[in-house]
Design a protein that fits this description.
The protein is α+β, with helices and mostly antiparallel strands and 278 residues long. It has 3 domains: 47 residues, Uridine Diphospho-n-acetylenolpyruvylglucosamine Reductase, domain 2 (2-Layer Sandwich); 111 residues, Uridine Diphospho-n-acetylenolpyruvylglucosamine Reductase, domain 3; 106 residues, CO dehydrogenase flavoprotein, C-terminal domain (Enolase-like, domain 1, 2-Layer Sandwich), CATH 3.30.390. The protein is 35% helix and 24% strand. It has 12 helices and 12 strands. The strands form 3 sheets. Strands 4-5-8-6-7 form a 5-stranded antiparallel beta sheet. Strands 9-10-11-12 form a 4-stranded antiparallel beta sheet. It has a 3-stranded parallel beta sheet with strand order 1-3-2, covered by helices on one side. Strand 2, helix 2 and strand 3 form a beta-alpha-beta unit. Helix 10 packs antiparallel against helix 11 and helix 11 packs antiparallel against helix 12. It is globular, with a radius of gyration of 19 Å. The N and C termini lie far apart (51 Å).
Length: 278
């Protein structure tokens, strides 16, 4: 519960919203869908900056990209016809695993990325799909990789305005393990490959809830290049992820358990991709 909130703002522009945050960063918070803010317990937060009037809830398409407003809900994103046309069932199926229907209709794309949550299925999927962000900060608008956003110092609070998806023709799959259907991930894995003549020409391998924020396993990606896409490929991917897993332990799961889960989920994702391509 945010027991000390005493001011509420509803800015009309991105610039105004960011300026309000800059005035008192230590005691202010952006409100998007509200699912994270509703669960917060902090006596430090005194000001809420509501982003609903910024109209960042549209999806548009260019020649080689899809631009998604940060206030687009997870459920709207999941069902959007432009996204389904370009990515097939990937986001439709993967985002069906994000909480309940009620949560997906509240949670937003920007609000799912901004807190840098280790278990965010949304962040893992967008990283696997090669997406980037448009943010507004002290230097104005800037395009940034999601991994670079995660690396920003904690004191910096730029405003995410859009997620940008590349129409690059890659094949992508997502797998998740959680204790219950609506629970957060113990581990989640996103796997994306670009095939060429029956072999993997490039790959993106992302693991979240390590328990750190989702990250690409670049050594695994490099080792996957030129692998033949056949019945053996998924087990090779499993071994590569197991050998290269980087993570830790917390009250949810140990390092060894996460390492095992990540490798199994990677194998399942690779099986899905093999079925799509062959």
């Amino acid at each position: 519960m945010l027991s000390n909130v005493n001011e509420y703002f509803r800015p009309e522009t991105v610039e105004e919203a960011f300026e309000l945050m800059q005035r008192d960063r230590d005691h202010s918070i952006f409100l998007s869908g509200g699912t994270i803010v509703a669960l917060m317990e902090s006596s430090r937060i005194e000001k809420i900056i509501d982003l609903k009037s910024l109209r960042l809830d549209t999806v548009s398409i260019t020649e080689d990209e899809i631009v998604v407003g940060a206030s687009t809900t997870v459920e709207s994103f999941r069902k959007d016809p432009l996204i389904r046309r370009e990515f097939g069932d990937f986001f439709y199926d993967a985002f069906s695993l994000v909480g309940s229907w009620q949560i997906r209709n509240m949670a937003t794309i920007g609000g799912s990325i901004a807190p840098k949550l280790g278990w965010s299925d949304v962040s893992t999927c967008l990283l696997a799909a090669g997406s980037s962000l448009m943010i507004y900060g002290v230097d104005g608008y800037q395009r940034m990789l999601i991994s670079d956003y995660f690396s920003l110092p904690a004191g910096e609070k730029p405003l995410i305005t859009h997620a940008i998806l590349k129409k690059d023709g890659w094949f992508t799959a997502f797998e998740k393990f959680s204790k219950t259907t609506f629970d957060i991930a113990t581990v989640n894995v996103g796997l994306s490959i670009r095939p060429e003549h029956g072999r993997i020409r490039a790959a993106r391998v992302v693991c979240g809830s390590r328990p750190q924020y989702p990250a690409r396993f670049e050594s695994v990606e490099a080792a996957m290049v030129d692998l033949e896409i056949n019945d053996v490929m998924p087990s090779i991917v499993r071994s590569l992820v197991y050998e290269s897993f980087i993570g830790g332990s917390n009250m949810t799961a140990s390092f060894e358990y996460r390492k095992h889960l990540a490798s199994v989920l990677a194998q399942r994702a690779a099986e899905k991709l093999k079925g799509m391509i062959l």
